[in-house]
Each structure stands twice: as structure tokens, then as C-alpha cells.
Amino acid sequence: MTSRRTALSRRALLTAAGSAAALTACASGSGAVGPNTPLRVAAANHVWSNALRERLPEFEQVTGRRVSMQILTADQLSSSYNVKLNASAVDLDVMMMRPLQEQLLFARNDWLVDLTDRVADPAFDWADVQDAARARSTTRDRVLSVPVVTERPALYYRKDLLPDGPPQTLEALLEQALSFTDRDAGVYGFVGRGQRAPAVSQWSNILYSFGGDFTTPEGRSGIDTPAARAAYTYYGDLLRRAGPPGATNMSLEQTMPIFAQGKSAFLIDADSVYTNFTDPKISKIIDTVGFGPWPAGPAGSVPYDIPSWSLAISRFSRLQDDAWSFLQWAAGPEKVLEIQTAGIPGARRSAWADPAAVAGFPPELAESMRRNIENGADHDRPEVIQVGRARDIVGRPLVAAILGQDVDAVAADAHEEFTDFLVRDNRQQEA
Amino acid sequence: MSTTHPGRTSERLSVAPAGKPSRTFEQQNRRLRWLMLTPALGFVGLMIIFPLLFTLNLSFTDAFGAVNSGRRYLGLQNFADALSDNRRFWPALGRTAVFTVGAVALETVFGLAIAMLMRKAFTGARIVRTILMVPLLATPVAIGILWLLILDPTSGIANELLQGIGVPRQEFLGSVSQSLGVLMLIDVWQWTPMMTLLLLAGLSTLPEEPEEAALVDGASAWQRFRFVILPMLSTTLLTALVLRAVDALKTFDILYATKGPGGGSDFEVETLNVYAYGLTFDYQEYGLAAAVLVLFTLGIIGVVVVLRLRSGRTTS
Amino acid sequence: MSTATATRTAALRPVVRRTPWGPLRALAITLVCLVIVAPVVWMIAAGFKTNVQVTDPTVGLIFSPTLDNFRNVLADGEILRSMGNSAIVGVVSTVLAAVIAVPAAWAVGRFSMHRTGSLVLVARIVPAISLLVPWYYVFAQIGLVGSYTVLVLSHMFVAVPLILWIMIGFFEGLPVELEEAARTDGLSAFGAFLRIALPLAAPGTATAAVLAFISSWNNFMFALILSDETTQTMPVTLFTFISYASTDWGGLMAAATLMTVPVLLAAVFGQKYLVAGLTAGATKG
């Protein structure tokens, strides 16, 4: 029995060593790039990604290059970029990223390929892309990304509850939302993001419509101005008094089902997610959902109109030419028109001018999008390198308002923190 | 700490059979034991020492954005920043302390109580021990998600049961004020069995005479427990405490799985571990994160040392 | 021990006392078991419910079950692959960790090298994040991030101290005489370890291996940071499920149940050994 044991353990040792060696070989085998190497595309869980995924075979046929598309949540995608780009990983080629959230940081870290020369290709028609979107794709005169999805807020509402149409002012919205709230019956007037960081971008619409902004024109913190405080208080009231319990734990994934199940009169979120409410498989309100333009605050109706998602190429990619082909294909005039017709708003003027594409959206939504584009501001979050930290700072008074705490005190403290932060961030930008 | 065994005679000279080379057991053993130990020492050393030194180095720099971007040395600036940060660092430390002390205290008390209940044989003891093991072997992420369902304010069974006995509905993990407490209780649910098993093992090694003597002297059950059993159990108790405390200080999975990055909208469950994670992967402030981690590690070591010292004082 | 005490204690041991405490004690123990087991039962039951039933709090344990959730989960290629990943990483890391930790435990236990042994146990104290940044910096230079290798190595980092901790206790408890006898019979020191100590410690090794495998199976943070979509393990997949499918609680619970199955099996079949393994070293101080 002893000898058998010895033989066993020797065999075990050999197997272990062998498998370890095999694993290492597998891992380092990724060095070589050949015609069979897939183009690695990392994408976020978004209607655009799903639409593109369906059309991948087209690209694969034309270029002969297989595409491997990985879909993650926005948080995970950020984490994944963090890990891979810090590690100069070569298994990432095309990156779907949020220019307003990540471009400044990625640019500072020198992680993105300079596309300035490539977009000059007349077939790509860079001039066709909307001005604001082009501006956000450019950092320090270098084009580092190409936009594929644009976004504005939509005031989703229930047509059956509001036969006279959606409210035109923020004041009316609050009033009407309160009137529909009946906690005991599990029915709410309003549902929207309450989680600190995700809520900031939706709240920015309110901030702008009250006449405020994250930073003053001089570049200083603007979250302690009367306009900002009023905006914090407004959103806090809206969610606290007319919203569901546990609102501070909710982001898009939690608010959507509530509205789709018919439990709320209003929802504020991106207009690009409207298909969730017109899909009979998950929505009970396909016949009664309405889309209103952004209501006016004391300073008018000022929603954001931004390129929410763009494509970029990782500097460490070994398939940069193929990656550019992918960008050309996915963000080019043809595909953008096709996808916009399927209901996903892009950044090209030609697509917006095309009546067939506009007809792809529900008419009320198309009209509200048009109005929002007219009035739109070009950012929905602080324009800094460390957007994550900035959102956490400016989101604190927002959460305080939702919880019914002393907004003034928290805003004053957040203002101090934001001021310090801006000093450090500016230094980083100049570095 | 070591229990000396009679008969551990690594120094015994061999009575070498005639003709064999006379290397003593001692010498052979010495070479061999280092040989046996080296792979493990080497592996752990490589996987810990270098990274720790790297992190320590990072903590003195302003490393930010990309790990290998240029960085300057700031001396102790990061530590000063962390220690003067009343908005995130100190509250995180406070929450870590509250969570750890609260959860571990409850786990110890319940664990001890259940162990005392179970120490004498009874039918079905095997089944009970099997049941006890389930929460502590299950995946913390799965446990977090499970409790998210049970405690969901609108569709969870917990609120349903509460309403049935006349208690108003709670927000549990959806509430900023209740989250940390709720997660502590979830931790207690998961790890009390661990304490129970550890203490049961300890109880089973206790000699019976002192208890019997106390019984004969007319001591009540409580007095027997307090003055006879507890002191004898103290070494096991403290070992179990150290084990659980170190793990509780580093709790991450259930906090992250239920509240996500940042420990919730009002940072309500942001402990030092969660904070360090956020600094590293959400803010990319590697220098500051490293400083926080150094302080955190020193804190854990401090806790272990303090508990060990107490253990020394009780047994001496 | 005097004869009188011996007789007395012999007479008192180990009779199951029929005291008035009996039923109360039974009640208390049953209550504890219920509290522990109820949530797990709930999770398994939810796996058999439709989403409408799961989110309806009035639906308890009486309902007509459906296998749809389990069918969907098992048909989901991603989930199957990540289960496979969890299994591969678990087995490989456990085997490798055992290979280097068991001999080390023998050395520490046999020769009372506790100070050196403690050095390895330092690994338990350090927070994992403080190692993650340097780890992927180094692994990046070698090009291993996102590979099985880096996951195995990081899981070994947890498994080695765990196996060491358990096995030290076992080896300490082994009588030295057997090995010494083998030595005088002409066996080398290593031979004595291999042919005498190791077989005797087999139960302990098995226990330690199972516990190490389970800890790897459950590991979340390392995979969260170091894996990519092909090497993702179950805890991370489960976590992403929440965000994707915030309304698919049935599927989520089915996946969680499938994930917990190995754990339940281990608990049921290995109860005696696992308890011994978990508590090893506790009584030794």
C-alpha cells in the first residue's frame, strides 16, 4: 500500500507540474497574431451593443476577420479597462467607452490610439458628426474616439394618467407626481435614479434648468450656488415624496422595471433606453407610455445632449488596422443610419435629417428628442479627469436631499471638497 | 504556543548499523525540513513580500491613473492626507470597527451558547453539525444575493413575515441607516456556525473533573459556566476570536455584492476594505490607496497583537 | 485520578441525560437549525419558481415548481463555462497548493518550527487588495493577466496557508516513533515522510484539500479583478447576473443553488472530516 501511495503522489506531482506548464503555455500563446486571431471588442450592456452584435456577421464576411464581442455592465467594463490597460494587455482592440466619463483619464494615461488622421478619410465623413459630439471626441486637438450613441433625457410618462399631455415645467412635474403617489397601494408618482453617482447625470438636467452648472465659467466649484441648492432640493423632494422606498439604492436597472410594471406615473432617464418600454416581453405599458420633452425650470429647458458612448482603439492592440476598419464600419454613415432606423440615436447629422431614420422612433419621442437637441448642454457630469470622484462629491448633497437631510450644510461641505478636488484635478490636467 | 511532545527527539543520535555513513538523524532532518519548507516559504514570500514592498513604495508616491505612469515621491503626504480625511477615511475606519466588533461579539456569544447546548451528546448531533456547516461553506456572493431577495422591501418574504406579526415594513438593504446593521446580522448568520464548531471542539477537550467537582460543591449551572468552563476555554476562545476578527475586518464580498462600489449612496457600508478597493479601481488613486492599505494592515496586525497579548495574560 | 472519582465519572459518562432540560434543549437546537437552514431552503425553492412567483411575497413554500430556471441556466453557455473555470482553477490551485504546503506542514509540525510557520500564516492577515495592484503589474509584464495561471496563483495564495494551518495540527499529532522506527530500518528522512507520515495524514490532507477547493470555489475578489470573460469564475458571473437580469430572480436563485451544490454535498458527506479540519489548530492554541 505504501508503494502505491508513493507512485500515486509521484504521478500527482507530475500531473500538477504538467498542467501548470500547459496553462502557462496557453497563456503566453496569445502573443502571436495571425489571420485567425479574433478582433476583441469590449462593449457595455446597451441596446446599441445588442443591435451591433446582430450585425457582426456582416463585418466578419467583408473583412474576413472574426469578431469576439464581450458585453459587460458599465462598472465592470470600467474595471476591465483599468486592469487590462494598466497591464498593457494585448487582448483588447476596440473599446466602447464613455467619452465624458473616461476620455480625459485615458488620454492622460496615453491608452488610446490617435485617430485624427484616420477620421480625415472622406468616406468616413467626420464633418457629418454633430459638433458637440466631435468636440467631446477630441482631447487636446487629437481625435481619440468616435461617437456611436447620443443621449438626452426623456420624460417618460403614462398617457392614460395624463390625458392633457406631459408637464411643461419642473414645477408642474413635481405637483403632478405628488398627486399620483399612493404609497399604500404601491403606486408612485415618480421613479428615477437615486444612487449617488448614477443619479448625478440625470440630475444635471435639473441643475442646468435651474440656471446652475457643476463649475462656474471661471472653473470653480458651482455646487454651492443658490441655483444648485434649489436643484438639489427639487430632486430630493421629487424622489423622497413621490418615489418608491429604497430609492437611494436604485439605478437604471431597478427603476426601469418599476415603470415598466405600471407602478409609476413618471420616469426620468436616458432617451436611448425607450425600447425597454415598448417591448411586450418586459413591459406592461407598451400602449400607454409617452415621451415628453424636458420640462422647463426657472432658467428654461436645458437638458444635456451628449455622445454617451463612443468607440476607441487601445494603444496596445496588435490589430489596429482591423480595429479601425471596425470603427469605420460601426460608426460610419451607413451603419449609423441603419441602427438609428432601428431606434438607437447616433451622432450623425445625416441620420437625424433622414426621415426614414427618424420614423424609426415613436413620433412623440422623435419630437421631444428634436427639442432637446436644440436646447441641449454638452455635458452631463463634471468635466474633469477623475470623473468618478467628482460624481461622488457632487452627488453627496443629492443623496442628502433625497434622504431629507440638511441640504445646505452638506452642499457647503461638498463645495469645499469639490474646490480642493478641482485644484488637484487641474494640476493633473496640466501634467 | 507550541505543545511540546514527549518523545520529540530530533536530536537523538542514530545508532547507525555497521557500515552505514554516520550522518545523524539530526543533520538529515535539518537539511530535509528546510528543503520541505522552502517551496511554501518561497511561494508565499514571492507572492507577498514583493507586492507588499511594491505597495509600500506606492504609498509614498502620487501614483495615479496608470500604474506605470511617472510618479513623484511625496514622503508621508498620502498618510497625512488619509489621517486628516474626516469625510471618507475616518468614517470608513469607524464602520470597520463597528461592523467587526458588533458581528464578532454576536457570533461569539451565540456561538458559545449554541456550543454549550450541543456539547453533550444527543440524537441527530451529526445532522445538526452538517447543517451548521452550510452557511460557512456557501459562497458569500450567493449569500449576499439571497438576502437581497429575502429582504427586498417590496417583494421579499421578510417584510411579509414582519407585517404578519404587526411590525411595519422595513427598507433593510434599501435604507441608508439600516444597511450596516443588516449586513452585520447577515454576517452573524453566516459565521456563528464557525464559532460554534470551534468552541465545540474546544469544549470537547476540557477535562470533566473540575466541572464535576463544582457540581458536587453545589455550584449552579451559570456559576459552573462562568467560573469553571469559561476560564478553561479561554485559549480556544481567543484563538477563535483572532481567526474571526481578522476575517471580519477584511469583509468584502457581501458588502460589495449587496451595495456595490462605494459602499452605498451615503457610503453607509464603506469599510476600509471597500474604501481601498474604490480608491484603487474607481478613482485610480494608487498612491493614496496604498497608504490606506498600509494603515489598514497595520491596524489588523495591531488587533491580532492585542488579542494575543490578552491571551497571554489570561493563561499565565 | 482516584478510584472513587474514576468510578463516579465513569458512571456519569456518556449517558444521554433525561433531565427536564431535554425537551427545552431540543427545542433550542431545532430553532437554531431552522434559522440556519431556512434562507438556504428559500433560495432553493426560489430556483423552482417563476419570476412572478418569486417577486410575490405571498407565495411561500407551497407552489407548483418549474424546471425552467435550471434549464435556462444550464443551457447558458457562459454559466457553464464559468462553472468549468471555477472547477479548473479550484482543482489545479488546490493540488499545487497541497504539493507545496503538505511537506512544509510536516517540516513545521515535526520539528516545531513554529516561528517559521507563522511567517507563512502572515498571508492570512494581509488584505488582498494590497497585493492586487503589484500582482497585475508584474503579471502584466509576463503577459499573464486574464489567464488561468494568474487565477490559480492567486487562489494558491489563499490555499497554501489554509492547508498549512490544518496540516500542521495533524502532523504534530502523529507519533514520532513510527517515523523513527522507519528511519532505523534504513529509510531516508524523505522516505519516512513519504511512506509513513503522508499516508497517516491522508484524512487530514483530504479534508484540507476539500476546504481549500471550497475557498477557491467561493473566491470573489481575485476573479473580479484578474479574470477576463473566458476565465471568469462563478461568483463573478453570479454577481454580473444581478446587474443584467435584475428582474430574473428565478434564474439568479437557480444559478446560486447550482453554485452551492458542491458545498452542500461536501457538508453532507464529509461532515466529520470537515469539522475536524475547520477546527484544527484551534485547540492547540
Question: Can you summarize this structure?
Answer:
The complex is a heterotrimer of chains A (431), B (316) and C (285). Chain A has 431 residues and is of the alpha/beta class. In chain A, 50% of the residues lie in helices and 13% in strands.
Task: Supply database-style keywords.
heterotrimer; A: 431 residues; alpha/beta; D-Maltodextrin-Binding Protein, domain 2; five-stranded mixed β-sheet; four-stranded mixed β-sheet; disordered N terminus; C: 285 residues; MetI-like fold; 76% helix; globular
What's the arrangement of secondary structure elements?
The complex is a heterotrimer of chains A (431), B (316) and C (285).
Chain A: H1 2-28, E1 39-44, H2 47-63, E2 67-72, H3 74-86, E3 94-97, H4 99-108, H5 116-119, H6 131-137, E4 138-139, E5 142-143, E6 146-151, E7 153-158, H7 170-180, E8 188-192, H8 196-209, H9 226-242, H10 252-260, E9 264-270, H11 275-278, E10 289-292, E11 306-313, H12 320-331, H13 333-341, H14 349-353, H15 355-358, H16 363-375, H17 387-403, H18 407-430
Parallel strand pairs in A: 1-2, 1-3, 8-9
Antiparallel strand pairs in A: 3-11, 4-5, 6-11, 7-9, 7-10
Chain B: H1 25-59, H2 77-83, H3 89-118, H4 125-137, H5 140-150, H6 157-164, H7 179-204, H8 209-216, H9 221-249, H10 253-259, H11 272-281, H12 286-315
Chain C: H1 3-12, H2 21-47, H3 51-54, H4 68-75, H5 77-110, H6 114-121, H7 129-142, H8 148-173, H9 176-184, H10 189-200, H11 202-218, H12 221-226, H13 234-244, H14 249-279
